Fold this sequence. Notes:
two-stranded parallel ribbon, alpha+beta, 5 strands, single chain
Amino acid sequence: MNSSARHLTMESPLGLMAVSAVDEGVTYVHMGVEEMKDAWGPEEATPVLKAAVDQLEAYFAGDLREFDLPLAAQGTAFQQRVWAELCRIPYGETASYLDIAVRLGDRKAVRAVGLANGRNPIAIVVPCHRVIGSNGKLTGYAGGLWRKERLLNLERGEPALFA
């Protein structure tokens, strides 16, 4: 079993993206990598990476609501639980950090949920953009709040705002 990471880059409405994977599954979806393009080295279109790029393109086109990819993100047991919970937030809907903490059985874990959410390495596929503040406002997003807003607009059926 070869677990050496490989990658593919893709143009998207959010800018240049890179998807990384090992044989077991996707490990990262990176956004805004224009300045790092030359550092990535040669690309390799493995079956997992090709499927990830195809599904991301379908998502951006508004044709895909649920990803079906093997995932291999590295994280603590708690992070893994939070990321699994993020995947349960339906397309076009949002949840607060408190909602996630409650679903995990500890309403006091709001900050820990926020930290785990912020460390999600597989953006979009593991939809951390669907997590908002308890007051309904958009809060931090590693890819930038403008990207979070565009992703939520796309999922709400407002593709004109996405373009």
